[in-house]
Design goal:
169 residues, Rossmann fold, 6-stranded parallel sheet, 33% helix, 21% strand, globular
């Protein structure tokens, strides 16, 4: 399956909680938890498969730690990497840009040659627009801890099983 790194900010409490649940769902698989606040761009190159946890801030923006790190990755080649993204958002309060950070991250790394894995169905969500949607699916796992927290564990289990299959193939 290759070396797997799960990158997220340890300071973002809700994202950190979800990252822990995702980590635990990878039963029997070695997944390294990495604080994105403490990494340099070369850390991303150490892993074959990268999972990114990104909440959407304000009106569809990346959190500062990601926004400041991506420019350092502009010259890197990710063509031999598989990348999955999960994100947190609020589909009622921010319906016009629900989980945009997933789409921003997926597009950035796809433009750097990475293969984006872990798409997720849009059924069961209510929102107006999202940069995370492409070809009728989310480009990663969107979670709404404000309005649909009770659905998160089941969604995570489904997503991780999908990732395991995509990584094995």
């Amino acid at each position: 399956m290759g070396k797997i790194g799960l990158f997220y900010s340890f300071k973002s409490k809700k994202t950190a909680k979800i990252a822990g649940i995702i980590h635990n769902a990878f039963t029997g698989v070695d997944v390294q938890l990495i604080n994105v606040d403490d990494v340099h761009h070369e850390h991303f190159l150490e892993y074959d498969f990268l999972i990114f946890g990104v909440p959407t801030w304000f009106d569809g923006e990346l959190p500062n730690h990601w926004d400041e790190l991506l420019p350092a990755l502009e010259e890197e080649d990710f063509s031999h990497k598989k990348i999955a993204v999960f994100g947190l958002g609020d589909q009622k309060g921010y319906a016009e840009n629900f989980c945009d950070a997933i789409g921003i991250m997926a597009a950035f790394f796809e433009n750097k040659g990475a293969t984006i894995v872990g798409s997720f169905p849009i059924e069961g969500y209510t929102f107006e627009r999202s940069k995370a949607v492409k070809d009728g699916q989310f480009r990663g796992l969107p979670l709404d801890q404000e309005n649909q927290a009770r659905l998160s564990n089941k969604r995570i289990e489904h997503w991780v099983e999908t990732l395991k299959k995509e990584l094995a193939g």
